[in-house]
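look at this stuff:

>
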Amino acid sequence: MQAHDTRSAAKRTNTLTLGQTKLRSVIRGIGSYLPVNKVSNADLEKMVDTSDDWIVQRTGIRNRHIAAEGETTSMLATHAANAALANAGLTAQDIDLVIVATSSPDYTFPSTATQVQAAIGMHHGAAFDLQAVCSGFVYAITVADKFLISGSHKRALVIGAETFSRLLDWNDRTTCVLFGDGAGAVVLEAQQGTGSVQDRGVLTTHLRSDGRHREKLYVDGGPSSTKTVGHLRMQGKDVFRHAVSMVTDVMVDAFAATNTTAADLDWFVPHQANRRIIDASAEKLGIAPEKIVVTVDQHGNTSAASIPLALATAVADGRIKPGQLVMIEAMGGGFTWGSALIRW
């Protein structure tokens, strides 16, 4: 009898029991920003030995945006932050936490987040950066969620922002064609929920990392090692192979934690790195192609900015609507990877 009770309790926990009120981190607003300078595959053909056909066939990328000289990561992030605040109908005074996910900060220190905090006129609360490369936005959503559901903070501005063009070796045709610059932001607000999967907000998050894979995707510089910024280096085939298995694992964990399946999803919004990785991951989990939000063709891999940029696009064009179930996932250098299941 006791074993039966234990199993029943586990099941009740797994399905996020109705009737137990719970704070949820609800997305109140969203915004994005892309630099004005758009670089097409045809433009890259003039710079390196590549072709539009080669890039599209292997990655699905057709365009990317490159920050102007003097246009920093914090500037992109500030544009996205202001757009998210406007979309939420809020001001900087309503925010008490700023998290910027980035691997291309303005400075070694202070953090990019503090530069955004100052730029939006916020002189209270806390601001800090989070570095998990392409998984950064998923990591930042997870961290902000912990702050909000603990009751310590009420509203968080979560931003993914990158100027990856500054990390590229523009003579390396295997990597320079893949990445672009941009920023996306969401405003998360702590709201009371019922404790069920029908609640709006972040329902579950799952993060992983494995530092043994550093050499497969990394930047070969840093203050402590080479005293330089360095350039991005990648073993593309290995990254592809690991990406599909790793991201599907954390998505399966999210389904198990909420007693949902791929069929319950309204939208799958993956990290926009490579169309083939996106399609392979979706196929492995049985996610219908019409449920996938794909923007990699328009802005390339913008690392931590790619998911919020894709979310902002799908919200703006009316695809993502309040009450819909959205899965986000990413994998980045390190390796790091993670997922979040969100009721919009």
Remarks:
- The mean pLDDT is 94.
- The chain has ten helices and 13 strands.
- Residues 201-343 form a domain with the Peroxisomal Thiolase; Chain A, domain 1 fold (CATH 3.40.47.10).
